[in-house]
């Protein structure tokens, strides 16, 4: 694939992407912070905004500890596929073991959206196919989008749609657990 292509290894211009983070094993909040820090220290990636940290009931396989979930906006020069590769690599570095679908994990990093990209491939579907069904994704994502809208960044219609869907689904099983003052919480590098 052409390296300058928006879908190639490197995007030709910085792109705005949104990710979801979750953890329900060990020092859950530490895994979230480590993931943010590792991503932000990666050349061509800059964390722009983070949501609050929410404690959430497990979905799918429910016989496991509660999750801490959050969302983040980032600016990247990586293509969607290269960014997904970075997320998977970061999970592995932080001890993620895939034994059971929707099972317990040290860290889970999902690429939710990448600019206006629409992909439907075996390894990557954008926007994330189940994000509009999951309050544990929509509530933190709504935080991020609203904070960015206050700074004039994303499309206000997208913000309204996500916020409306988060309200429709409700916040049952979701409690604000903590906040992160980014970037001071993890002291990211100046890359």
From TrEMBL:
Pathway: Cofactor biosynthesis; tetrahydrofolate biosynthesis; 2-amino-4-hydroxy-6-hydroxymethyl-7,8-dihydropteridine diphosphate from 7,8-dihydroneopterin triphosphate: step 4/4. One of its GO terms (biological process) is folic acid biosynthetic process. It comes from the Bacteria. The keyword tRNA-binding does not apply. GO terms for molecular function: 2-amino-4-hydroxy-6-hydroxymethyldihydropteridine diphosphokinase activity; ATP binding; kinase activity. Its EC number is 2.7.6.3. InterPro entries: Hppk (IPR000550), Hppk_sf (IPR035907). It catalyses: 6-hydroxymethyl-7,8-dihydropterin + ATP = (7,8-dihydropterin-6-yl)methyl diphosphate + AMP + H(+). Residues 101-112 form the 7,8-dihydro-6-hydroxymethylpterin-pyrophosphokinase domain. Keywords: ATP-binding, Folate biosynthesis, Kinase, Nucleotide-binding, Transferase. The keyword Nucleotide-binding applies. PANTHER family: 2-AMINO-4-HYDROXY-6-HYDROXYMETHYLDIHYDROPTERIDINE PYROPHOSPHOKINASE (PTHR43071). This is 2-amino-4-hydroxy-6-hydroxymethyldihydropteridine diphosphokinase. It comes from Paenibacillus sabuli.
């Amino acid at each position: 694939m052409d390296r300058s292509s928006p879908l190639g290894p490197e995007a030709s211009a910085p792109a705005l992407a949104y990710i979801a983070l979750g953890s329900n094993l060990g020092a859950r909040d530490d895994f979230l912070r480590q993931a943010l820090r590792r991503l932000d220290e990666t050349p061509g990636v800059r964390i722009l905004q983070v949501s609050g940290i929410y404690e959430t009931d497990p979905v799918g396989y429910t016989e496991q500890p509660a999750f801490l979930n959050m969302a983040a906006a980032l600016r990247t020069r990586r293509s969607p596929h290269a960014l997904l590769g970075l997320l998977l690599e970061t999970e592995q570095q932080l001890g993620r073991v895939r034994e059971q679908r929707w099972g317990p994990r040290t860290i889970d990093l999902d690429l939710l959206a990448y600019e206006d990209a629409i992909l439907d491939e075996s390894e990557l579907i954008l926007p994330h196919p189940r994000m509009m069904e999951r309050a544990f994704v929509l509530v933190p994502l709504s935080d991020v989008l609203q904070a960015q809208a206050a700074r004039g960044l994303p499309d206000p219609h997208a913000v309204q749609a996500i916020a409306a869907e988060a309200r429709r689904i409700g916040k049952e099983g979701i409690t604000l657990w903590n906040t992160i003052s980014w970037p001071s919480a993890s002291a990211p590098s100046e890359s």
